[in-house]
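Please predict the structure of the following assembly.
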Amino acid sequence: MKAARLHTQGADFIIEDLPRPRPGPGEVLIKIAGAGVCHSDLHIKRGDVPAIRLPQTLGHENAGWIEEFGPGADSHGFEIGDAVVVFGGWGCGNCRFCLGGREQLCDTFLWGGIGPAGGYAEYLVVPSVRVLVPTGGVDPVMAATLTDAALTPYSAVTKTLSRLVPGSSALSIGVGGLGQYGIQFLKLLTPARVIAVDTDPAKRELALTLGADVVIDPRSDDAEQQIKELTGGQGADAVIDFVGVDSTMALGAASVGKQGIFVLVGLAGGSVPYSFFGVAQEASLTTSNWGSRNELAEVLALAQRGVLVSHVEEYPLTAINDVFDRLERGLVAGRAVLIP
Ligand code: NAD
Ligand code: ZN
């Protein structure tokens, strides 16, 4: 099968011919319909985040069709040919995080596309039917983006719900692959006024079409002041940072109000001082790491109702290096999806 593998951080992907994988006991072989190109893979490719075992087929945002069940697998009602999305945060299945339904927090970190081989290929082996969710009629190429670009913001927004009561405000920083869905979940799940921030005017335009109430250019001198005014001097009740550089974290920490919450999603490596008098009283700070299998089913339920808008650019898998270049230059509107 065709697969795009990364051999060295800092280098391009190489398209290779690899043997088609065989699913082992309990495993399932998926024929890939589409694999979303996450900025996290760009961090890996560039070497911004700790090295993973190379060479590796990346791609942790996958959807496709069931091709083959491994020997002895209980199909739990799934059939060959079923269209499915793949929950990618695979763990050991037995620790307290896995058993509590937060498998993506397992220490084993067996995430498909980061530990085992991922979906920048024609086929993908998944560990069990438990990581599959039926697409339920959602277009499989679009559905691929739901497994991370939508699931991660969904999980981040659920962490803010207790704060986002009527009359509240939410600040959403970064309107890329993840941010496009973050704005929509804030509008769908909460009554908050949504303020979106992006350095790129085209992304700010996109934010307005997705339901943001106001957009702000973080490079304008009075960005912080504008947020203060928009929130009646109180600051935002929730901030979600989908970028995670020093400047976005500084803006977020300065903008979060009393008893508010700052949720860091972006992996760009930034940091911010967190001290008693440095942040609003009783403001919380947390990271948010992907989402759970059950949350993915909830995201699919929203997509099946037709209430999610997905901005997706489709490319052949062989264009992978050009697509990563586009992502690096900030030219992707929404999410790019590679089709083998
Ligand atoms: P993306 O490249 O699609 O989008 C990034 C957006 O941020 C772009 O619209 C860009 O214009 C904007 N931006 C860049 N610098 C900015 C700044 N200083 N201020 C405001 N806006 C700025 O990226 P993505 O795929 O949406 O991923 C976003 C981040 O989230 C990445 O760091 C990625 O690794 C991370 N991520 C985290 C998780 C998690 O579980 N925590 C999951 C997936 C992705
Ligand atoms: Zn990702």
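Residues 36 and 145 are 5 Å apart (CA to CA). The two ends are 10 Å apart (CA to CA).
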